[in-house]
Hints:
Blueprint: H1 4-7, E1 14-18, H2 23-34, E2 38-43, H3 46-58, E3 63-67, H4 73-87, E4 92-95, H5 110-138, E5 141-146, H6 160-180, E6 185-192, H7 198-202, H8 209-221, H9 231-242, E7 253-256
Parallel strand pairs: 1-2, 1-4, 2-3, 4-5, 5-6, 6-7
Amino acid sequence: MKSNSELIDLTGKTAIVTGGGKGIGRGIAARLSEAGANVVIADMDEASAKAASQELANKGHRTAAYNVDVSDEIAVQNLITATKEHFGSLDILVNNAGIYPPKPIAQMSTDDFERVIHVNLRSVFLTTKYAAEVMKLQKSGKIINVTSIDALHPSMIGLAHYDASKHGVWGFTKNSALELAADNIQVNAIAPGGIATPGVAAMSTGASAEQMKAQTEAFMAKIPMHRMGEPDEIGTVALFLASDMSSYMTGAQIVVDGGALLS
Length: 263
């Protein structure tokens, strides 16, 4: 039986965290790095990716930053190849990249809908497909998909495209877990509720102070714990799923929402 410290030791493992430059992705990257993993920060925002990577490097962790559009097949193939060449393996994939620009269906264009589906769902298919090729050769791997409580229940009007994408990621998680289990690749998901991130803050851009206060109070009223979560609180769950502590789990989704779905 492994000791507790051995169970969460990721020394020698290599992880890719998509959307790792900010928010939840940055919180996940920090926890995986602290556990000893080499971490590749993959993000469309090059400056954020480099800043997050530098922050980890300053703490003595092995890291790299890649500017990549994870909805682009060639870009994803290049990311997987570069990671394998740079660090020698790919053991953990965290599909965290996602966008959620609110817009009612009546005002939503086809391009609006497809952009969210491409970034949130198509990307998970592409990264899983090409990461799994490496993991199959290694006969081991961990894939962690960040869904949302919206994969289980809608949170607000204006996120029909987002909810469709996250239901899709949850379905893809279960079926890919079934397919990849024979190769000792575990696929699980984390469903965050309200997390204090730059992306969530941006949803209130343009709102007055009174409107922001009203929105915040209405949102908090739905959370039994009466607070927003922190990116690190998703990071610790990702560490659990990336480590040997979750050795008998696949096709599962862990809800981390302060109890929001209870209401």
